Amino acid sequence: MPRITHARAYLVDLDVETVRTDAVQSFLKQETIFVEIKTDDGLTGTGYSYTIGTGGGAVLSMLREHLVPRLVGQDAANIEQIWMDLFASTRATTTGAITSLALAAVDTALWDLKCLRANEPLWQVAGGFRQEVPLYDTEGGWLHLGTEELVASAKASQAAGWPGLKIKIGKPHISEDVERLTAVRKAVGPGMDIMVDANQSMTSAEAIRRAKALEPLEIFWLEEPLPADDISGHTRLAEATSIPVAVGESMYSVAQFREYLQRGAASIIQVDVARVGGITPWLKVAHLAEAFNVAVCPHFLMEIHISLLAAIPNGRYVEHIPQLRAITNTEMSIANGFAIAPSTPGLGIDWDWAAIEKRTVA
């Protein structure tokens, strides 16, 4: 019965590693919210969450004023009980981004403790299906990049053995998206998976129109074509195109994923461990998707998602967007286009505590 003796939350700002733009926004910075939890058996668990530039202070306030004070004295092994207690204590603000991001920082710290206590890595404690998962590259596909840059990056990813890559779409005219993607497909040939991401920028009618234009290019999936709360629009799109529809990064509860799956509105589930509220609900979404025979390809946070994807049987791809290198000592292992889940106990992230302290802003 490992009792929580101390818990704290703090905020670390990280500059972006490269310019990142899509159809609706730019990635300004990563506000990384940390939670550390100590227990009376001498262990310390570290969890984290994030925003891409705004709202980090609000998440930190939710943690400091409401969630963290409830942790001391609780049994750290009772992860489900703690998650539900914290969730119930914030009913006035659920379901939504601020609460889910705050819950995730606590929940990942508790899972870190669980794995440390078991002396096993997360990918095994959470399920243990396989240790290696395919990677796809997003860093070379941002919307501001020219066609020649897209092609050069795609060929570099292919030469490195990566099986997939993602290109942002949503240019003012459909012909621009088609021209860019046609050039990339011609450069890499038919054997490489090409995903596209519209970042919720389209109407249902426009998404159907653009999907039809892209179908000859054998697109692997069409990601976030519409606002995440437009389930009926996604349903119409899924019925109108042969391209699999991918959603999930802007969804904050298990119930939202259930609605999409029940209505056939998603063929790829991109559940984000931070935005859904932590590892506990992430696994529920993943197993729910498995029941519908749908693959999971999580959004961002590759350093933790590799372990979670390796834990489940329906994990398909990890997204490669490095963003923690400034505050970690080692990088994720990659071999022949596959990410290799860490074997070290805990979450498997080798934090650089001096660098974290230097970048702590609150």
Automatic annotation (TrEMBL):
Pfam families reported in the protein's UniProt record: MR_MLE_C, MR_MLE_N
Necessary cofactors: Mg(2+)
Domain Mandelate racemase/muconate lactonizing enzyme C-terminal span(s) in chain numbering: 147-244
PROSITE patterns: MR_MLE_2
Alphabetic keyword roster: Magnesium, Metal-binding
Superkingdom in the source lineage: Bacteria
Keyword set includes Lipoprotein: no
Matches recorded under CDD domains: MR_like
Protein name stated in the entry: L-alanine-DL-glutamate epimerase-like enolase superfamily enzyme
